[in-house]
Amino acid sequence: xxxxxxxxxxxxxxxxxxxxxxxxxxxxxxxxxxxxxxxxxxxxxxxxxxxxxxxxxxxxxxxxxxxxxxxxxxxxxxxxxxxxxxxxxxxxxxxxxxxxxxxxxxxxxxxxxxxxxxxxxxxxxxxxxxxxxxxxxxxxxxxxxxxxxxxxxxxxxxxxxxxxxxxxxxxxxxxxxxxxxxxxxxxxxxxxxxxxxxxxxxxxxxxxxxxxxxxxxxxxxxxxxxxxxxxxxxxxxxxxxxxxxxxxxxxxxxxxxxxxxxxxxxxxxxxxxxxxxxxxx
Length: 281
Ligand SMILES: NC(=O)c1ccc[n+]([C@@H]2O[C@H](COP(=O)([O-])OP(=O)(O)OC[C@H]3O[C@@H](n4cnc5c(N)ncnc54)[C@H](O)[C@@H]3O)[C@@H](O)[C@H]2O)c1
Hints:
By secondary structure, this protein is α/β, with parallel strands linked by helices. The chain folds into 2 domains: 2-178, Rossmann fold, CATH 3.40.50.720; 185-270, N-(1-d-carboxylethyl)-l-norvaline Dehydrogenase, domain 2 (Orthogonal Bundle). The protein has an 8-stranded mixed β-sheet, sandwiched between helices. The chain has helices at residues 10-21, 35-52, 60-65, 90-103, 119-123, 157-169, 185-201, 207-217, 224-231, 233-247, 256-263; strands at residues 2-6, 25-29, 67-70, 81-84, 109-112, 132-137, 146-151, 173-178. 45% of the residues lie in helices and 14% in strands. Helix 1 (10-21) packs across helix 2. The radius of gyration is 19 Å and the shape is globular. It contains 11 helices and 8 strands. The structure holds nicotinamide-adenine-dinucleotide.
């Protein structure tokens, strides 16, 4: 299958990698000039690590040769599947889907990796919304098994079936969701993160003990506060804001401790400080 991945950031590069690992021909593009070489190097390093651990049998060079980086979106050409992984901005995504719709073959599937934008809204950017779908991967893509497949009101059942089968072919576990805010994963996760933040805000326990409780008592692989730092506190706040505005329910409202941290530039791992300190990482 020929796959185009648009956006070569954190998610796009991982998505390109897993498709290439499964034998698909991938074309990868990004509007930022230096994003493509960085992404290709990152994929190469990731494949080398997987090879060393014997997780992949194929030579990393061969897998890498199936990914063709191109500088312009209009050079991605004719593909069977288009996966968008650009910034989480509605207007940018709509513009991109309108342009893909102009040259993509009628039989192709167009998918978005959005975390929080309505698939129904995005699907209006293409003339035949039956072929439009959400394909929500998790970070880091080569490691995380889950793919949420989001069906908009007008998504054709055959499109859902194809994408479920494509995800399985990548070695992923697909789940299907209606187009509801936060789909399944973020709807469950955000109240958990919020409650942990409230425990800290109210002085119930310190960050380490809150995280240790979730890990050792609830069997979560990461504590909710370290997970928030990993995702990025600004991203967590944006997702909570979307859920809060859509559902209007207190359980999704970002807590004051989160607002204060985001407003003061404490965004988690990426800024070196969040609920924890990360030194020079
Ligand atoms: N980071 C995560 O954990 C995560 C998880 C699941 C889904 N998502 C979703 O995936 C998408 C991408 O997130 P990310 O974390 O990879 O972002 P990112 O900022 O790391 O990468 C986005 C890339 O898209 C490029 N880009 C922006 N507009 C473009 C355009 N019009 N054409 C071509 N390239 C363009 C940027 O230059 C950048 O390299 C978002 O919709 C986000 O909500 C993110």
